[in-house]
Every structure is written in structure tokens, then in C-alpha cells.
Specification:
InterPro entries: ITPRIP-like (IPR026250), Mab-21_HhH/H2TH-like (IPR046906), MAB21L/cGLR (IPR024810)
Domain Mab-21-like HhH/H2TH-like: 435-508
Protein name: Inositol 1,4,5-trisphosphate receptor-interacting protein
Membrane topology: Single-pass type I membrane protein
Order of helices and strands: HHHHHHEEHEEEHHEEEEEHHHHHHHHH
Distance between the termini: 176 Å
Pfam families: Mab-21_C
Oligomer: single chain
Largest sheet: 10 strands, mixed
Structural class: alpha+beta
């Protein structure tokens, strides 16, 4: 019996027949059935594991093929979008990386070029500033002329090169002959003018209506004639006359440093409002806003909410306002003075007339002998309870033609200035030279202006310089033998102020004012008031002033020697001590 051995497909040696003998016959006899079996096995396996390889009519293939294909397309599209997004993210990362690398490179380049860049920036700024300064200094004139001006304005030492300043003996002789010899009759003139002014004001009160006109007080003397340093003729006495409104009215003032309604060029000015004495200081809102036809103020009746314009004009106010008008005051005062003179003219053997029509009280006495005496009688308004006054018309520089509104009143501190000079004089050595310095400087400047025309400097500027130096220097520095040194100090200080275009008012903003004067604290705490501010706004006036000042320096010796008697030095010193 022959045994046959067979193995399954998973058995090692699958498809291999093992016959002990007759191997060739076995292969030939079984080759066909084995092949058929293998084909069938492959078909069965394919049907079980890969049903989609067969047509649709096959029962094992699902009928929702289109839905599956659609999902596969959607999946394919989703994968495609994810691929694009990933590509964009990769591109963005690469761009960011490149930007970082570029920024690092730029930073490195900046670090390498930092020093040269700073140098060029600084150089560019310097060039720009130089061009701007050149434009401001030379745009209004020839650059060659301005260059000469800048050379002159450097320091006082350069301005004095080639100028021989008078020595002590020459100054002493000049002061004794020219100053003292011409100012000896000032006291008699002051006495005569004051007596006549008192009589004139008394007559003015008698012709005025006490119930409707302004009330005039006694006059006060101020200025160079009463501070004993007036040197130039004609001698003019300055008198101020305070006045007040009739009852029940009063004046309420506002100064530039206590309100925001004043422009920069109105520093030193204020306004005066005419109010009823029982009126609220702040005023009712009905006087500031339009209530309308259907509204009524419960505090004020309709008859009291506004005053007739004729009434306010009688109170010398600007048209349709409550603010005191300087022009109206000038007209009123001139008419009142004319009436007063007509009443007392029979008592005097001289004539009285107005020397300037644009000044309220510029008066001139004309004697039958031909001589004349001029004086100013100017109405003023007292500021609160102090000796600061609002002055209706203040002498202004001829070169600066700008005038403020007639409701803007200039403040004068002349009374305090006179008191300060009297107070400080008590602490100075006997025969101190402060007044002598001011007199000499005023004389030199006046003479130079008569030769070359008016200047932006005034005698008030010169007096302000003296006041600052009186406060700054020790008392012993004003001994009479130091006249030459102190005069040069005043010239140096004045040139420094001209160079900087800054000369501050002595009282406004000065917290070192002696307490004995009783000066209002409001002005001490105010911002300093620059008296040279017009030079900043008017460059032509500034240049004219600087030229006149330097010309005065060069002509100092000639002007002084013209009025000097040359005498021995020892004798001159003795005369000077006696004169002072």
C-alpha cells in the first residue's frame, strides 16, 4: 500500500509531495489537480480580502460607492489645504528668520557706524543753528554793518578800546561846573510850581459838581526834579493828582499780573472798572450773559441790570462799557483846568497854557519878561490802598509808536522809587556819588541824542540801572572818591542789559525790596517786567539805541572836556568834596 503525504498551504513544504519512490510519476499525475486547487485558493482569498476588485453586481460590494468616493475627495481636498497651510507657515517662518537676520545685520552696521553718525548729526545741528542766527541777525540789513555791531557789542572792554575815559579830576571839575552850576535853582522852582498847583486844584474843586464830577485830591511831586538828579533844561516838574468817582461809585482795578486778559505787550498795564459801591465784586451772571426775553434775574430788577450809556459817559467810561477811558479823563481834566484858571487868573501876572494837547496836564507858565516854567499835572487813580498809581498818560519813547487801548492804564511806581532813594541814602557815606553818577550819565546821553537823534534809552532806564546797583553793591562802594569806578559800573551794567535786551523793572518781581517801604506783595511776587522788551520787537530801534550808546562812549571825553575847567588835581579834589 502506498502512502501519500500532503501539507496545507500554511504548512512548511506546502505543495510538495514526498514520495519514497517513483517521483516523476507523482509529479506528472498530481500536477494538474494541484494547480487548479491553487488557483481556486487564490480566488477565494481575493474575494474575502479585496471585494472592490469585483464588479458592482457582486453581492459583497456596497451600494454607497459614490458617497465614499465623495468623502475621499473631500478628504483629499482637506489634505491639500493642510499642505498649503503648512507650506505658508514654513514660508512665514523662513521670512521671519530672514527678517531677524537682516535686523541683526542692520544693528551690527549701526553699531559699527554709531560714532560717525553722531558726529554728523551734531555737526548738522550746529550748522542749522548758525544759519538761523545768521538769518535773524542779517536779514534786515547789510551783513557787513551788522558784523561791526556784533564786534562792538561783545564786551565793554572792546567798546572802550581807543576811548580815554575821564579821570577823577576831570570828572570832579565837570560835575562842579556843569551839574551843580545849573541845578541850584531847582528848589525855588519846585516851591513855586507846587504853590501854584495847589491853588489851581482848589479852584478846580470849586468849579466841579461835587455830586456828578470826579473828586480831585492833593497833588504829589515825583520824578527827577524831586529826586534831585535832573540836569537838562528846561526843568519840568512832574506832579500827579489822584482822583476818585462821586458817590455811590468806586473804582475797581485789575492789573496785568492778576488776570489773563492782557497781551504780552500790555505788561505793566491794568484796567479800571467803575462800579457802584454796593455792587458785588464778582458781578451777577445776568450782567455777563443774555438771559432772553422770557427770563428775569431775581437779584436785580430790570431797571438796575444796565445803566444808561449817558450815565457811564458822564463817569468817563469807554463807550458802552464800565471801564474808565483815559481819553475821556484827559478831556475832562483839560476842561476842568481851563475853568479853574479862568477863575483865578486875575490873581497872577502871567499866562497859563497847555504845551501839549495830547497830554492832560502839560502846562506852561509864561511870564511877561519872556521866561517860562513848564510842569505836568497828570491825573492818576490809586491802586487799592497803596502808593502805586494808574497814570492816564505816560511819556512814551518817540521811536516806539505803538499805543495801547485807552482803557489800559499804565502803572507808575514813582512814589516808591523816591522813597527808596531817600531810604538808601541814609545808609550811604556822606556825599555819596550815586546821584552824581546818574546826573553825569543822563547829561552824556542827552547830549549824544541832541547830536545823533533820539534813542531807545530814556532817563527812566538810567535811573533803573542806578537802583539795581544801589541794591547790589555795598554802601561803602558809593563813597564820593569812587565816582569814576561807579560811573563805569553803570556803563558796564547798561551795556550788558543792552546786549541781552533785558533790563528788569526794579520793583516788579523784586522780592528784596525793603519791608520799610510797605510795597505791595502782589508786585513782588509777579514775574519780572522787562523794560527792554520793545528792543526785541523793534530791531531798528535796538540798533539805533546801540549805535547811540557806543557813540556816547567814544564821545565821553570830548563831551566832558567841553564843560571842564582844567585846574590842578589837588585843588579839584577839594572842590569836588565841597560840592558833593
Amino acid at each position: 500500500m502506498r502512502a501519500y503525504g500532503w501539507a496545507g498551504p500554511d504548512t512548511p513544504g506546502f505543495g510538495i509531495c514526498i514520495f519514497p519512490a517513483r517521483k516523476s510519476k507523482c509529479r506528472e499525475g498530481t500536477a494538474m489537480p494541484v494547480g487548479i486547487f491553487r488557483v481556486c485558493l487564490v480566488v477565494i482569498t481575493a474575494i474575502i480580502n479585496r471585494p472592490f476588485l469585483f464588479p458592482k453586481e457582486n453581492g459583497t460590494v456596497p451600494e454607497n460607492t459614490e458617497e465614499i468616493i465623495q468623502k475621499m475627495k473631500e478628504r483629499e481636498e482637506s489634505l491639500r489645504l493642510q499642505k498649503l497651510r503648512l507650506e505658508q507657515e514654513i514660508a512665514g517662518q523662513e521670512a521671519a528668520q530672514q527678517a531677524l537676520e537682516k535686523a541683526a545685520k542692520v544693528v551690527e552696521e549701526i553699531k559699527e557706524e554709531k560714532v560717525p553718525w553722531d558726529m554728523w548729526t551734531a555737526l548738522s545741528m550746529v550748522i542749522f543753528l548758525l544759519i538761523e542766527l545768521w538769518r535773524q541777525d542779517f536779514q534786515e540789513g547789510n551783513w557787513q554793518d551788522t558784523g561791526a555791531e556784533e564786534d562792538d557789542m561783545a564786551v565793554l572792554g572792546k567798546a572802550f578800546k581807543g576811548v580815554a575815559f575821564p579821570d577823577k579830576a576831570t570828572l570832579a571839575s565837570f560835575y562842579e561846573k556843569r551839574i551843580l552850576g545849573t541845578t541850584g535853582d531847582m528848589a525855588r522852582m519846585r516851591e513855586m510850581v507846587e504853590g501854584f498847583a495847589d491853588d489851581l486844584l482848589e479852584a478846580l474843586r470849586s468849579v466841579c459838581n461835587r455830586d456828578a464830577d470826579m473828586e480831585v485830591e492833593d497833588c504829589m511831586g515825583v520824578g527827577s526834579m524831586y529826586e534831585n538828579w535832573r540836569v537838562r533844561k528846561p526843568f519840568v516838574c512832574d506832579l500827579i493828582v489822584p482822583f476818585a468817582p462821586p458817590e455811590p461809585y468806586c473804582f475797581r482795578s485789575q492789573i496785568w499780573c492778576s488776570g489773563d486778559s492782557f497781551a504780552p505787550d500790555e505788561q505793566g498795564y491794568g484796567t479800571i472798572k467803575v462800579c457802584r459801591a454796593d455792587e458785588d465784586v464778582t458781578g451777577c451772571i445776568c450782567d455777563k450773559t443774555k438771559l432772553g426775553e422770557d427770563m428775569l434775574c431775581l437779584l436785580h430788577s430790570q431797571g438796575n441790570t444796565s445803566r444808561p450809556s449817558s450815565e457811564m459817559e458822564d463817569l468817563l467810561c469807554f463807550k458802552n462799557t464800565q471801564y474808565l477811558d483815559a481819553d475821556q479823563v484827559m478831556k475832562w481834566f483839560q476842561i476842568a483846568v481851563t475853568k479853574a484858571w479862568n477863575r483865578i487868573s486875575h490873581k497872577y501876572e502871567f499866562d497859563l497854557s497847555f504845551s501839549l494837547l495830547d497830554s492832560p496836564g502839560a502846562l506852561k507858565i509864561k511870564f511877561r519878561s519872556g521866561k517860562s516854567v513848564a510842569f505836568n499835572l497828570t491825573p492818576v487813580v490809586q491802586y487799592e490802598n497803596s502808593d502805586v498809581y494808574f497814570i492816564s498818560h505816560f511819556p512814551r519813547n518817540e521811536l516806539v509808536a505803538e499805543l495801547p487801548s485807552s482803557t489800559r492804564w499804565f502803572l507808575t511806581f514813582a512814589v516808591y522809587e523816591r522813597r527808596f532813594i531817600q531810604l538808601i541814602s541814609k545808609t550811604l557815606p556822606a556825599g555819596a556819588c550815586h546821584v552824581s553818577c546818574l546826573q553825569i550819565l543822563s547829561f552824556l546821553h542827552g547830549k549824544q541824542c541832541s547830536l545823533t537823534g533820539p534813542s531807545g534809552l530814556t532817563n527812566y532806564h538810567l535811573k533803573t540801572v542806578m537802583l539795581h546797583l544801589l541794591q547790589a553793591r555795598p554802601s561803602q562802594d558809593w563813597a564820593p572818591e569812587k565816582l569814576e569806578a561807579r560811573l563805569q559800573d553803570m556803563l558796564k551794567f547798561l551795556e550788558k542789559c543792552l546786549h541781552e535786551k533785558k533790563l528788569y523793572h526794579f520793583f516788579v518781581g523784586n522780592e528784596k525790596v525793603p519791608a520799610e517801604l510797605g510795597f505791595p506783595i502782589t508786585f513782588q511776587r509777579a514775574e519780572p517786567l522787562n523794560l527792554f522788551r520793545p528792543f526785541v520787537l523793534h530791531r531798528d530801534v535796538y540798533r539805533k539805541t546801540v549805535d547811540t550808546f557806543h557813540e556816547m562812549l567814544r564821545n565821553t571825553s570830548a563831551l566832558i572836556n567841553e564843560y571842564t575847567v582844567h585846574i590842578p588835581l589837588a585843588h579839584t579834589n577839594g572842590i569836588h568834596k565841597e560840592a558833593i
